Amino acid sequence: MGTIRLLLPTAILASLAAAGLTHAQSGSVPPLETADRILVEKSERKLYLLKAGRVLREFDIALGLAPRGHKQRSGDYKTPEGLYYIEARNTASDYFLSLKISYPNEQDRERARTLDVSPGGQIMIHGQPNNPGYDENWYKYGDWTDGCIAVSNSDMIDIWLMTEVPTPIEIRP
Q1: Which end of the chain is more exposed for a tag (fewer CB within 10 A), N or C?
Q2: Distance, CA of 85 to CA of 93 (rounded, Å)
Q3: What three-state secondary structure class fits 155?
Q4: pTM for this entry
């Protein structure tokens, strides 16, 4: 298994190092396993990091404000369903770290063309807002995103460290 490259701001790297969450050069800290697949079960509000079919980690998630059903168009507040992959990592988003999901895929674009709407985009797995508009408890209980998959900041660190581009992701109803 190769070393995971981190593209994090210095302050975050220092925090991760203090928490023992980076790979030590001396080898004193064992490396985290890298997931070969992500599975999201929307109905369970769970995200699973998998390797060779084995669950490495399980996380509680929040979804879009209208989570039932597959995303059809921009602004519908739905989280997509289907097969995608992680296509980018972003340390400078409005949320604590983010992993961009490859939505829309060709099927999503074709469906949107048929409906004569924009399919939307910018679907991410991310942590909490950097500048929250509500009390932090509001984000802990219930769905609140525009269609993304949100986790706690501490969970986002683990997901960040245990995934690479392009990790496949399956999002189930």
Answers
A1: N
A2: 19
A3: helix
A4: 0.84
pLDDT digits (tens, 9 = 90+) for 55-108: 999 999 999 999 999 999 999 999 999 999 999 999 999 999 999 999 999 999
Handedness of CA 3, 160, 21, 55 (dihedral sign): negative
Q: Judge contact between 22 and 6, C-beta under 8 A.
A: yes
How many Å apart are CA 157 and CA 159, to the nearest integer? 6
Q: What is the largest CA-CA distance in the chain?
A: 56
Domains in the chain: ranges and CATH? 34-172 (2.40.440.10)
CA angle 71, 76, 80 (to 5 degrees): 20
Q: What is the SS3 assignment for 136? A: helix
- H helix runs in the chain, sequence order: 10-18, 106-115, 136-140, 153-161
Torsion of CA 105, 8, 92, 94, to 10 degrees: 90
**Among 91, 112, 90, CA closest to 100:** 90
Cα distance between residue 90 and residue 94, in whole Å: 10
> What is the spatial distance between Cα 82 and Cα 87, in angstroms, rounded to a whole number?
15
Reduced 3-state DSSP string for 66-86? CCCCCCCCCCCCCCCCEEEEE
